[in-house]
Amino acid sequence: MHTGSPTSPQSALDARQKTLQQEAKLRPPHEAASLLSAHPAAEAAAVLMEINPGFAQDIFGEFTAGFRHEVFRAAPAEIVRQWERNQTYPQGSVGRLMEPVYAVFHPEATVGEAIEQLRALVKTRFITYGYVTDPGGRLVGIITMRDLLFADHATPLDVIMLREAFYLDPDAPLAGAMKLVLDRHYPVYPVCDREGILVGLVRGQAMFEEQNLEITAQVGSMVGVEKEERLATPWKQSLKFRHPWLQLNLLTAFIAGAVVGFFQDTVDRLVILALFLPVLAGQSGNTGCQALAVTLRGLTLGELKPGKEKLLVIKEALLGLLNGALVGLVAAVGMYIVATYQHTPNALLLAVVVWLAMIGSCVASGISGAMVPLTLKRFGADPATASSIFLTTATDVVSMGLLLGLATLLIL
Fold first, then answer.
1. How far, in whole angstroms, is CA 71 from its chain's centroid?
2. How far is Cα 90 from Cα 384, in angstroms, rounded to an integer?
3. Beta pairing class for 198-203 and 188-192
4. Is the Cβ–Cβ distance between 286 and 395 less than 8 Å?
């Protein structure tokens, strides 16, 4: 009976490294570094060569100096040179995502010579394009595999290469680079410094992964979930990340509760107002979240230019006014119907109070939705960090305060 061939030691090693790679990718940098540090440096180096270069740089920053040195010794020299070069670029830049360039040719080399060089390279490296540089290392052209396939072997590369090649700046922020490549869809992009010298390659997939991580982390940051937290994060660490923000949220909820307490006499005399407190809080909160989402998107994608912040706030205030007037009208009709059904005095005046309170709260929430992330950014903080908590507090306090305050002023 056929029992199958035994697993070779190399196959078992590759399987273990693949499992380790998957486990590392599910963790934030400090946890991934702790995981890899528990394995031989050669295995850690093999994993780091296969994951997103930007994530690898974050992990390097969490290693001890001794283990990082061991990993560098275990990796190929050209990989190590690229890792060290990437470390010189700022966080969130294209330069942090670079891979080494292998298929580099001189302009006078022939198609046949390039093909022979590629035969050896493709056995160990994933090659998409060939790059032609001058003696100083400046990028002068790109060679596609299709051109090599159909060109005569004696043809010099400078005859078939694509001149004036598009490339990225290693110092450019990732968000800006993403806008530049939006309509190009190349699998890999050359990266050149200000002098045009080819310093690395960055894959479109790596850029997308990094940007996707930032965008998805932004959603969690809005409610106090740290970007370092992943599905595989231990519950104790998750508790440490989340609990302080929940305590802050509780404190802000007490502030909103204090507003209601201040108008306790009004609530006691006009119990019907209690029915519409969550209505106003919900509508104004949603209005603020819309403004917050648009503002964060503009900040993330670099669409909000310096000096345009005032116009953004004015726009969101105007939208709050218009939306508040329209939804406030429906809410006012609802108040009038309920008040009339319950034979509550001043039903029409109560409807007016709800309408005015809805307008005011939506205007305030629109302004808050734009101002909260702008203020956080101005003070050097992440504009998404717990912004939803601050926004909810502002909208709750204003909406409840306006409804109860106007009722006290106009009716009682």
1. 29
2. 20
3. antiparallel
4. no
d(C-alpha 95, C-alpha 83), whole Å: 10
Pairing relation of β-strands 104-105 and 130-133?
A: parallel
Q: How far is CA 372 from CA 131, 249, 368, in A?
A: 47, 15, 6
The predicted model scores a pTM of: 0.60
Query: How many other CB atoms are there within 10 angstroms of residue 174's CB atom?
Result: 21
Which helix (H) or strand (E) element contains residue 190? Answer: strand 188-192
* Phi then psi dihedrals of residue 403, to 5 deg: -60, -50
- The answer to whether the CB of 165 falls within 8 A of the CB of 190 is yes
Digit-coded pLDDT (tens) for 222-243: 444 455 555 556 777 777 777 7
Query: What pLDDT is attached to residue 385?
Result: 62
Amino acid, single-letter form, for residue 348: L
**Helix (H), strand (E), coil (C) string for 112-174:** HHHHHHHHHHCCCCCCCCEEEECCCCEEEEEECHHHHHHCCCCCEHHHHCECCCCCECCCCEH
Kindly report, residue by residue over 29-75, the tens digit of the pLDDT. 888 999 999 999 999 999 999 999 999 999 999 999 999 999 999 99
Which DSSP symbol is given to 78?
H
User: Please, which residues bridge with residue 143 across strands?
Assistant: 130
